[in-house]
Each structure stands twice: as structure tokens, then as C-alpha cells.
Design brief:
mainly alpha
Length: about 100
């Protein structure tokens, strides 16, 4: 299939999918011409159906969604600062101070 022909039938397919009845007969004949044409039509149709918005955004319950998110966040374990963490920091700071003291004096 040539690029110009492909573009022409892509436009015809999108018109058909938006409900234009004029394209149906021409498109049906084109699809019957070869298996490649049928596969191309199916591919464009699948993309069209996957990209269409089939939900009404006004029916989304934001309070319920927020409640679910907060419930999940509250389940996460809280990290407690342990003494081991502070001992490691103190040791890391103390070693250079002691070495500097020995070299200086």
C-alpha cells in the first residue's frame, strides 16, 4: 500500500469510526481487497477504541479516592531513628576530629 493511499484510507477509517455513513461502502470494498487492508483497518480500529474516553469524569468520587490513598499511606511503616544510626554518625565525625587533634598537637 502506498503512503498516499494509506493516508487516504486512514482518513476514511477515522470518518467511519466517528459515524460517517458515506465511508462505509467504500471502506468495506477496500477491506475485502486484501488481508493487509483488513489488518490495517483492525489496527486503526483498535487504536481508536483504546484511545477513546469512555468514562464520565464527573462521576469520579474524589473523597473516596483520597480516603483510599490516605489509608494506603498510613499503612506504611514509620521509620524510627535508632541509636545505631546516631552512633554511626558520631563515629564518622569523631574519627577525623581525633586524627586532626593528633596531627595538630
Amino acid at each position: 500500500m502506498e503512503i498516499g493511499e494509506q493516508e487516504k484510507f486512514t482518513i476514511a477509517i477515522t470518518r467511519f469510526l466517528t459515524g460517517d455513513p458515506e465511508e462505509e461502502a467504500k471502506l468495506a470494498a477496500w477491506i475485502e481487497m486484501s488481508e493487509i487492508n483488513k489488518q490495517y483497518f483492525d489496527q486503526i480500529k483498535n487504536i481508536w477504541e483504546a484511545s477513546s474516553l469512555n468514562f464520565n469524569p464527573t462521576i469520579i468520587n474524589t473523597e473516596e479516592a483520597l480516603r483510599k490513598v490516605l489509608k494506603r499511606v498510613s499503612k506504611r511503616p514509620k521509620r524510627k531513628m535508632s541509636w545505631i544510626y546516631f552512633k554511626n554518625i558520631a563515629a564518622a565525625a569523631l574519627i577525623p576530629l581525633l586524627l586532626g587533634n593528633f596531627i595538630w598537637f
